[in-house]
């Protein structure tokens, strides 16, 4: 049974009538004690004239499961077959027998991982659900194993002889298995909410701004790891005009004349008439095709990839470093497709893949980028930007660049995003003795022939990410700004950046119209509030909320409070951070704390949810400190440049100094109960910190790097990332960096219990990195655990694995920081 997901219903904390069942309320033999009927809600009879109960039919489970969501909702009543039924307390039920079905609902709160038996007395036939999951009974008794937090219990009864005889009893396994029962509606944030809640999956706005497509995704128990996605076409009055429910469209584009919507569905390129809603299949058999865009009203431009046939030979000869990638020999070319006939023609050819950067249908030109070699033996592969003239098939080379991200037309010129080293360091804002971090994106203006270029963001600290160009030639850029993701407008005529007021800490997706007063559709969230969908016009720079997940997915939910916490490190630099506090914080008590960081070249942004759920950890009674150590982008070039050739040198100091400053600022944090964790480069930092300090009582590294040399040589992108993180440094010319900064070379210094987590199919940081550290620590007799996730790559995506992963993290910290090993022992019993 999986009880990792807390429920969406009720919790006991804010109620005045609590029933606390502990050993003190029971006999010394830990016998069962009945729940107070005033703490149990009752509704019924449901369909009193029901001639056959569900168990008397062939569809019992389907009938009960369909009813369950209505019972789970925190409502005062439900209407069944036109009859309104009101929830009441079980102690108010007067009838001895009732027809149809009846339902009971209550909540239980566990202060720690707790086990016991829940028994139903007087109910002959029933199904019991915890957090929406059906439980298996032995003679109407159910074994509970509940993590800390709030859980909803629903009982749907089909046969009861006398409701006066009905009791629900709980027997704890031990005297520490304490549960509190209640009918209150307020509850703590749950893992299930964070993962399953409806979120915006895709956005696309029509050029005229009058229609938009929005795809929303959610998960549920019945579909497991399979996401449920619904895509709707809406007008500017928020009315749904067209809806996709089963098969979902992809690669959605709008015609320049605003008349059509084109998308790929079930392998077919399909055109939808916006006025008549008539459908037309434009083309089929387009395997490997993507990135469709209207070139003009009559044709589409797209990329078409071709993978080599399956190699059945006994050996594989590597032709270059990229051959470690499974897709390295896939070639992609640009094509043009005639909408009327479905005929496609190639625009590029040869052994090199070509990527479409942008196009200008009026001039008949296409901007393409390509590598200069099929298999480059370089840590900084060179990108060539060319302009293709479709009429005569001629190519003009605009330039070759060691750092390059995007290129888009703006009038007669070209916007380019790239690192500070673009065109011999044109974007550098650094002292001469510092090497630039080219992950710190900059914006440039390049003349059409490529001879002249101007840096546009050299004095602009946020790191430039996604680039889009408005009809008037201004640039819309998504940037990393400290620990936020923001939208900025670059006014080309005034040569200045201005921030758009989205109201989000983290902008996730955006789409915009091409009319005279462009509208922007944007989704995002804040550190303490979940996802919303908004629309704003650039001229007014004010957002209007179109959809908010808060009332739908997080009603009656306690969410951690947030405080900013910054400190000055010993180098005199301000290091930003934030602290999440449990919703029921009592400052007179001592709390364990978790310190989270990445430490790589990106900050830990302020999204509400994600792979590392800070709000959830706080709900489990931990103070959470998220620190943004030296080396991250978004804080200016000098800050990010310190990531180069450092491999934890500054980062470790910032984390340790920040933790010490945290303890001074928050006296209710117990200095003897500190945990730390990070993933990828953050996993490397966790391993490194265990060799440098004993201030932490437990540490977790997910997909961490233990040996910089093996990661550089084995990880799919190890040599590319190291091209910045270890710029100009190699094992043969800087062996101290590769060895002495690698945690495994200092494994004998580790004193902290360490949990290593890794997907066994990780191509980014191969699982051998955790194996290496595990081997060293085991041989040294250290306290180390290694948990692998079968079939998982660098990130844990699958719903069942994600819940188990979150449980494993919390159970490990509960064991070491709360002296509560029971959850860990339940998940990983000794054989």
From TrEMBL:
One Pfam family here: Peptidase_S9
InterPro entries: AB_hydrolase_fold, Peptidase_S9_cat, WD40/YVTN_repeat-like_dom_sf
Domain named Peptidase S9 prolyl oligopeptidase catalytic: residues: 614-819
GO biological process, one term: proteolysis
A molecular function (GO) term: serine-type endopeptidase activity
SUPFAM superfamilies found in the cross-reference section: alpha/beta-Hydrolases, DPP6 N-terminal domain-like
Signal peptide bounds: 1-32
Keywords: Hydrolase, Signal
Protein name: S9 family peptidase
Organism: Pseudoalteromonas arctica
């Amino acid at each position: 049974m999986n009880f990792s997901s807390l429920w969406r219903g009720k919790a006991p904390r804010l109620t005045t009538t609590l029933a606390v069942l502990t050993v003190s309320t029971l006999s010394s033999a830990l016998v069962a004690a009945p729940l107070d009927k005033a703490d149990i809600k009752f509704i019924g009879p449901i369909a009193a004239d029901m001639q056959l109960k569900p168990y008397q039919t062939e569809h019992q489970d389907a009938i009960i499961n369909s009813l369950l969501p209505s019972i789970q909702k925190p409502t005062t009543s439900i209407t069944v077959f036109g009859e309104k039924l009101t929830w009441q307390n079980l102690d108010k039920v007067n009838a001895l027998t009732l027809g149809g079905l009846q339902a009971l609902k209550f909540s239980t709160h566990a202060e720690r991982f707790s086990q016991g038996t829940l028994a139903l007395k007087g109910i002959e036939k029933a199904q019991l659900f915890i957090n929406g999951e059906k439980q298996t009974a032995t003679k109407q008794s159910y074994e509970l194993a509940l993590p800390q937090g709030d859980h909803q219990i629903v009982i749907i009864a089909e046969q009861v002889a006398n409701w006066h005889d009905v009791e629900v009893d709980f027997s704890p396994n031990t005297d520490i298995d304490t549960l509190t029962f209640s009918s209150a509606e307020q509850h703590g944030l749950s893992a299930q909410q964070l993962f399953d809640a409806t979120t915006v999956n895709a956005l696309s706005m029509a050029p005229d701004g009058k229609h938009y497509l929005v795809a929303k995704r959610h998960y549920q128990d019945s579909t497991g790891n399979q996401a449920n996605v619904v895509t709707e076409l809406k007008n500017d009055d928020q009315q749904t005009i067209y809806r996709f429910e089963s098969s979902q469209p992809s690669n959605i584009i709008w015609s320049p004349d605003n008349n059509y919507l084109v998308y790929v569905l079930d392998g077919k390129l399909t055109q939808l008439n916006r006025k008549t809603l008539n459908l037309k299949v434009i083309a089929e058999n387009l395997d490997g095709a993507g990135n469709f865009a209207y070139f003009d009203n009559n044709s589409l431009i797209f990329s078409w990839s071709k993978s080599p046939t399956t190699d059945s030979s006994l050996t594989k000869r590597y032709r270059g470093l990229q051959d470690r990638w499974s897709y390295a020999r896939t070639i992609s070319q640009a094509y043009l497709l005639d909408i009327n006939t479905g005929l496609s023609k190639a625009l590029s050819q040869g052994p090199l893949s070509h990527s479409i950067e942008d196009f200008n249908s009026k001039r008949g030109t296409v901007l393409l980028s390509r590598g200069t070699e099929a298999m480059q033996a370089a840590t900084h592969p060179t990108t060539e930007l060319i302009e293709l003239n479709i009429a005569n098939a001629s190519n003009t080379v605009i330039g070759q660049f060691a750092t390059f991200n995007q290129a888009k037309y703006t009038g007669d010129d070209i916007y380019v995003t790239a690192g500070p080293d673009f065109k011999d360091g044109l974007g550098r804002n650094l002292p001469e003795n510092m090497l630039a971090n080219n992950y710190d994106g900059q914006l440039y203006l390049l003349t059409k022939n490529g001879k002249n270029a101007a840096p546009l963001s050299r004095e602009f600290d946020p790191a430039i990410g996604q680039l889009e160009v408005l009809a008037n030639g201004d640039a819309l850029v998504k940037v990393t700004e400290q620990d936020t993701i923001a939208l900025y407008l670059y006014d080309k005529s005034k040569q200045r950046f201005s921030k758009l007021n989205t109201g989000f800490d983290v902008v996730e997706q955006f789409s915009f119209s091409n009319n005279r007063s462009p509208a922007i559709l944007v989704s995002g969230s804040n550190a303490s509030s979940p996802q919303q969908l908004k629309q704003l016009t650039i001229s007014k720079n004010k957002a209007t909320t179109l959809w908010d997940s808060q009332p739908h997915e997080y009603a009656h939910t306690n969410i951690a409070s947030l405080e900013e916490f910054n400190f000055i490190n010993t180098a005199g630099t301000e290091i930003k951070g934030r602290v999440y506090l449990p919703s029921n914080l009592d400052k007179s008590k001592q709390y364990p704390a978790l310190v989270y960081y990445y430490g790589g070249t990106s900050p830990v942004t302020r999204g509400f949810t994600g792979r590392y759920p800070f709000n959830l950890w706080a709900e489990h009674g931990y103070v959470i400190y998220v620190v943004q150590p030296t080396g991250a982008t978004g804080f200016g070039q000098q800050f990010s440049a310190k990531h180069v050739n450092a491999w934890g040198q500054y980062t470790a100091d910032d984390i340790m100094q920040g933790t010490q400053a945290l303890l001074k600022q928050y006296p209710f944090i117990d200095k003897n109960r500190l945990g730390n964790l990070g993933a990828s480069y953050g996993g490397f930092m966790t391993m490194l910190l265990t060799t440098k300090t004993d201030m932490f009582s437990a540490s977790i590294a997910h997909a961490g790097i233990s040996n910089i040399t093996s990661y550089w040589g084995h990880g799919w992108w190890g040599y590319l990332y190291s091209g910045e993180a270890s710029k100009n440094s190699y094992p043969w010319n800087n062996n101290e960096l590769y060895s002495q900064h690698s945690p495994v070379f200092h494994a004998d210094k580790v004193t902290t219990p360490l949990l290593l987590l890794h997907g066994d199919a990780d191509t980014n940081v191969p699982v051998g990195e955790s194996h290496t550290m595990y081997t060293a620590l085991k041989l040294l007799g250290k306290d180390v655990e290694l948990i692998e996730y079968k079939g998982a790559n660098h990130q844990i995506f699958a719903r069942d694995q994600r819940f188990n992963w979150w449980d494993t993290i919390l159970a490990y910290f509960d064991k070491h920081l709360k002296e509560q090993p029971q959850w860990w022992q339940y998940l990983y019993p000794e054989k």
